[in-house]
Structures are given as structure tokens and as C-alpha cells.
Amino acid sequence: MCNSLIPAAYRAAGADPADAARQARQDYPPAPEPLPVPVMDNHTHLDFPDGESPVGIAAALDAAQAVGVQGAVQVGCDLESSRFTVRAVDLDSRLLGQWHCTPTTPGLCPARRAGGCAGGD
Questions:
Q1: Quick one: which of 46, 51, 42 has its CA closest to 23?
Q2: Residue 76 neighbours by CB distance under 10 Å
Q3: Would you place residue 4 in the very low, low, confident or very high pLDDT band (cuts 50, 70, 90)?
Q4: What is the pLDDT of residue 30?
Q5: What is the mean pLDDT of residues 15-24?
Q6: What is the pTM of this model?
Q7: Model confidence over 75-96: pLDDT tens digits?
Q8: 102 pLDDT more than 80
């Protein structure tokens, strides 16, 4: 995982006050009105499932595109999520991929283990 916060889908039941509301939700809310100008989502984690209904990469991007989000940057932050990112980018041209290392995850960043990341902290 990229940070110390556990994604909602992986939290133990009862660990979050919003769990009851999340568990009561059977599906996703309706889509918002389309944006007035096209945009790009600059940080997504399509590998973090949420809700009762799994959504595939193409379906998520189709839903986003319907409201004006033309593409997204899928972020990998460990080996598993980075492999997912490579596969996802290969599957859909609306995605760009990025590998990300944060100050809160020094054990996951090889450069940090070696003494620091390029460009400083």
C-alpha cells in the first residue's frame, strides 16, 4: 500500500464509523452532471476495490468519460500495484501510469533505503 491509511475495502469491519453506511450501500451513487470542460484525473488507484459491485478498468473509465474525465493517471506505489498499473495502461489508452514513492513509505522506496530519493525529500 502507498500510505499508512488502509483503503476502505480492506479495513476490518467496525474499524471506521462510516463502515455501517458503507456496508448499507448496495451500489454506487448516480453520476454527477458532466463537467463544463474536459479534465484528466491526475491520481487514481483503480486497483483499490470499493463497494459491493466490482468495476473493471474500462467500465470505470467509461463512467468517468461520460462526465468529462477524458483519462487518468493510474498510480502504482509498491511492486504489486505497479504491475497492475503496467497491465492497466496496456489495456486502455485513456490511462497513463506512474510509480510513486512517498515520505510515509520509506521501506517501499528503493532509493530511500539507499539513502535518499533523487531530488531530495
A1: 51
A2: 21
A3: very low
A4: 85
A5: 54
A6: 0.64
A7: 998 888 899 999 999 999 999 9
A8: no
pLDDT for 99 equals 86
Q: How far apart are CA 67 and CA 46, in angstroms?
A: 17
Q: Residue 93 is placed in which grid cell? A: 489508452
Burial of 56 (0-12, 13-18, 19+ CB in 10 A): exposed
Q: What value does the mean pLDDT take over residues 22-37?
A: 76
Residue 91 near residue 58, CB atoms below 8 Å = yes
For 6-42, letters b (16+ CB in 10 Å) and e give eeeeeeeeeeeeeeeeeeeeeeeeeeeeeeeeeeeee
* Integer angstrom CA distances of residue 35 from 29, 69, 95: 17, 8, 19
Cα atoms in the 13 Å half-sphere on the side-chain side of 75: 13
Kindly compute the dihedral angle of the four CA atoms of residues 110, 111, 117, 121, in this order, to the nearest 10 degrees. Answer: 60
Amino acid at site 71: G
